[in-house]
Amino acid sequence: MMMTKAHSIECREAPVNPDGQVSLWRKVMRGLAEAPPTGLLGLVVLFAYLFVIIFAPWLAPFGEAAVVSDVYEPWGGQYLLGTDSLGRDIYSRIIYAARNTVGITLLSTVLAFVIGAGLGMIAAVMGGWTDQVLSRLVDMLMAIPLLIFALLLLMVFGSSVTALVLILGCLESTRVFRLTRAVAMNVSVMDYVEAARLRGENLFWIVRREILPNILAPLFAEFGLRFCFIFLLISSLSFLGLGLHPPTADWGAMVRENAMLITFGRMTPLLPAVAIAVLTIAVNLVVDWFTHKASGLSK
């Protein structure tokens, strides 16, 4: 009776929050209020790119591959940024290229992290022959220059969207594996991980509950870096003619297609290059902000 009464009193006196906890919207607004100007600038740029990617068919006045006029029309009028060597509207193609290039980059980056981070944490936790085999295999793949290896594989398997995502995701996963294994090795020797092993927890539980939450900050920073590297690699491959097949719009290919216009004093080839540079800088600004926040360091 005494225990029951005490328990009931404790239950009545427990504070009840009708909202449960601070809403997600408040957390987001608090985070934005505490963000540095560079982080906010990068976030605004990323949202602008996202808006263009989502609403590309409505923002572009012409189709992605539609021939609308004569070749190399000047800027202004109906064709805001002129036309290319085939008479296609450059403004429309830049908009569609954002969806194509960024979409492939994001898919490749996610695939690289699914493969690299997963195998890296398994190698760190299991150790022994598993760690040795995976590490030596990654060392062999990393010994080959990335661009040359990518060019070779794309010439063999073709440069379709599926091939690009699989090849770039698998090649970049080696870099993710090295970082994940290094940071996970430091966590795997901690006391709470050993306690989980002694309790009989399985490998998946240890990786999900003990390893991954403690290495999110470096992994998030690496995600931003990998995104930028893959983004620039896809643009380089497209500039060399091994990216997306024509007439699919791609920023790297657009630089190559309109490069001769520079000799006539026109800045058209620089527009896709500027789009590539601005997105890369914006991603780095946002990643620096989130990494600083996740690390727990004071301003």
How would you explain this protein's 3D organization?
This protein is an all-alpha fold. The radius of gyration is 25 Å and the shape is globular. Helix 8 (161-188) runs antiparallel to helix 11 (216-239), helix 11 (216-239) runs parallel beside helix 12 and helix 12 (251-257) packs antiparallel against helix 13. It has helices at 2-13, 24-33, 37-54, 56-59, 90-126, 128-142, 146-157, 161-188, 191-198, 203-211, 216-239, 251-257, 270-295. Mean pLDDT is 82; it is low at 1-21. It has one domain: MetI-like fold (Orthogonal Bundle).
Reconstruct the topology from this structure.
Blueprint: H1 2-13, H2 24-33, H3 37-54, H4 56-59, H5 90-126, H6 128-142, H7 146-157, H8 161-188, H9 191-198, H10 203-211, H11 216-239, H12 251-257, H13 270-295
The separation of the N and C termini measures 54 Å
Overall mean pLDDT stands at 82
Number of domains: 1
Full CATH superfamily name: MetI-like
Please state the second-level CATH architecture: Orthogonal Bundle
Radius of gyration, in Å, reads: 25 Å
Q: Provide the CATH top-level class.
A: Mainly Alpha
Number of helices: 13
- Stated plainly, the CATH topology is called MetI-like fold
Strand content: under 5%
Query: Which regions are unreliable across 5 or more consecutive residues at pLDDT < 50?
Result: 1-21
**Shape estimate:** globular
Largest sheet: none
Structural class by SSE content: mainly alpha
Helix content: over 70%
Order of helices and strands: HHHHHHHHHHHHH
How many strands appear in the DSSP assignment? 0
